[in-house]
Design brief:
Strand order of the largest sheet: 1-2
Number of strands: 2
Distance between the termini: 62 Å
């Protein structure tokens, strides 16, 4: 009895590797460095960048990236701004707007 030959695949296989997501930032800033950045940006301009309301340090604002990190913005002090916090604050509105097109 003759041996059966293995058939070659007719369908081309795809790569099994998973693409690495776009590198936004290898590591987000935390701790003292982040608090120092928050203070420096607040000292530069203690007002909300959108509504221009004066915000208190440290709990009255969120440090926001002008160009979001997930859209290619840099994690730098120059790309940071102060936005008032809270459920009706400018930070919540900007975040919702940034995510709308994502």
């Amino acid at each position: 009895m003759a041996r059966l030959k293995a058939l070659k695949p007719r369908i081309q296989t795809i790569s099994q590797t998973i693409a690495k997501p776009a590198a936004v930032s290898e590591r987000r800033m935390t701790g003292r460095k982040l608090q120092s950045r928050r203070f420096n940006v607040w000292l530069r301009d203690p007002c909300c960048a959108t509504c221009r309301r004066v915000v208190e340090y440290p709990g009255g604002f969120e440090l926001d990236h002008k160009v979001p990190l997930f859209k290619g913005g840099e994690d730098s002090e120059e790309n940071c701004q102060i936005l008032c916090s809270g459920p009706d604050g400018c930070h919540a509105k900007k975040t919702a707007e940034d995510l709308r097109g994502w």
